[in-house]
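User: I want to check something. If I give you two sequences, will you return the structure for each one separately, not as a complex?

Assistant: Yes, each is folded on its own. Here is the first sequence with its structure:
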Amino acid sequence: MELDFNYHSLAAIVTLAEEHHVPLSQLVLAQQAQQLEKSEEAVYEQMRQNYQVMSECIEPGCDPDLRSTSGLTGGSAAKMRRVSERGGSLTGSVISGALYRALAIAELNAAMGRIVASPTAGSCGILPAAVLTMQEEKGLSERECVMSLFTASAVGMVIANNASLAGAQGGCQAECGSASAMAAAAIVELAGGTPSQAEQAVAIALKNILGLVCDPVAGLVEIPCIKRNASGVAGAFVAAELALAGIDSAIPADEVILAMKRVGDAMSPTLKETAEGGLAATPTGRKLHEQVFGPITGGSCSGCGGCHS
């Protein structure tokens, strides 16, 4: 198998996978093993350990008494889980299950728990929630789920090389948007879709979150970040569902990624993790800042550093 490829074009990787009649994950695992000069099983085991950490976030993240260090957030995952497990969800067990898992991991992060940045701490709930929910709902094996993370990682690498994964550089579209795209690709593969369908899902997921600003209240990765993890995983399922139905994105994924870069570059610095604009600058946002850090001086963030992933 020819593995001389880089992560600068998702279309190129998809074409190679389809030429060799293999899933994206298999191609990526083989390439990474070759690049790292390790066996495929050794590389797989590293990813399996990441997946184990992801799965271990759910129970502590669903503790109804969990609260973030700031005291601003916590307990939402427990509420969503109760609704999901009682069958009272409007959207069924798949979406409601993904919602509570995304909230659980994001809330655990805010409470200084152990998470996997996938691709960032601020967006850490989206990809794990998607894959863990697919495993639960579709009865998938651990190996299938771990392999899907290689597909997701390829998407993340292409985005990192052509745009950004950092809220401080590209806004929340770069964090939750990238995570949603990565999750959408993983879902498609887990559902038996083709590499081309995964590519379409990436494009759709990113288009639907294009332009999302990064405006953390009080400079902390909590408000609105945690709920954006929930919306991000829901968006990933929407994108995957459309792609699996044979619906294509009019704009190719690689072009959407480049558009995201241009949008991020054009975005005001006040909307890129500085806590100087958007929701952070609302009256309630400023009151919450004062609640945590005391009176605001100079009309801007206190520089606490909490917004950095």
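And separately, the second sequence with its own structure:
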Amino acid sequence: MQISYIKKTEDPIPKKLRVAAYARVSSGKDAMLHSLSAQITFYSGLIHRNPDWEYAGVYADEAVTGTKASRPEFQRLLCDCNAGKIDLILTKSLSRFARNTVTTLQTVRELKECGVDVWFERENIHSLSEDGEFMLTLLSAFAQEESLSASENQKWKIRKNFSEGQPTPTRILGYKLVGDRFEVIPAEAAIVKRIYTDYLSGLGLTAICKKLMNDGVPTKNGGQWRESVIRSILTNEKYVGDILLQKSYVTDHISKKQVRNNGELPQYYVKNAHEPIIDREIFAIVQNEMQRRSSAYPHARCSDTALHEFAGKILCGKCGCKYRRKKLASGKVVWICPTFNRLGKAYCASQQIPDAILRDLVSGIAFDHICVPCANTVTIITKSGEEITRTWENPSRSESWTPEMREKARQRSIIHGKKRSNDYSGD
């Protein structure tokens, strides 16, 4: 038997903890932004002053509610944790981290699997401690109830104002809100009157958009004129001096989804609340004309577009809009940029893609989304982040013709030939 002596190794130098901090404010107001700045300064100094800590950054979200996990800086923080860049996260309180119990617990558990600890300063809780999850469950439930209470208080205040005829702050072309009353902006009011006049002269929503853009007329918010904006202007009761309050409402304090009020909550109609821009008689004529056109020319829409595998996943490389599915008169289906479809090549020189060709291009690829940078080219971004560029050739016009289209062309050719023959015989 042989016994060997193994010398004790020196204790390794303790590794510094890589420490980051997370801060958030739910409003863009000056006071809130000052609070965010103070949080960033405080945590940056706190981490730098600790000799056992290594600064890993401060992640801060501005004017973002704590009930949503899709906060950009919050998501960046989680990505860095998953990448092994952070050991400890400092945050002011549970309510700053998240006000949704489910989100809090799911995030803490995800970070626990990565070996990342979260220290909630106000509650003095470490998520990796023995009783950490129990305390987090209890306290985050209180935080969520606090969020609900604040939401209900705000709703009560808004609905009380509605019942007294007071509008909520809003931006509308032609008016500015001074106190609780709308005042006319003459230059913008002229644009509103022009839109009503153009519509009654026979122009459609798309034609009005084109005309305004060609003349360089600005929108209220500096964006592009769209049919939805024109339709909203033509149907808004505020232009005759009235206000319909509580047209929409927020479903709950977690999702904060805003939906149209179809009778679920009471509405309040305030007549002669402010100076009108449009005469009531003109407004009524426009509503009747819109109803007539809607009945005469029903809008054709593919009912299965929203459920289609490509819906919302094809981006136009020219204007950034998402391609839509369109069924042509021939019965064939294409994917087309809505800007090009509505306004033409002058506003977006993109190209439509036949559905059959698009399917061939992505066949066998688990794609996340598709970009159309230029003619006859698509860039396919896979779910793993790889970029695949593919090209295609447009089918010739003759190949795209159906038998019915060929027959119509033949009939037109016969008629045109007879007309020319008659013209010559008269000479």
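Because they were folded independently, the notes below concern the second chain alone. The two ends are 129 Å apart (CA to CA). The chain is about 40% helix and 20% strand.
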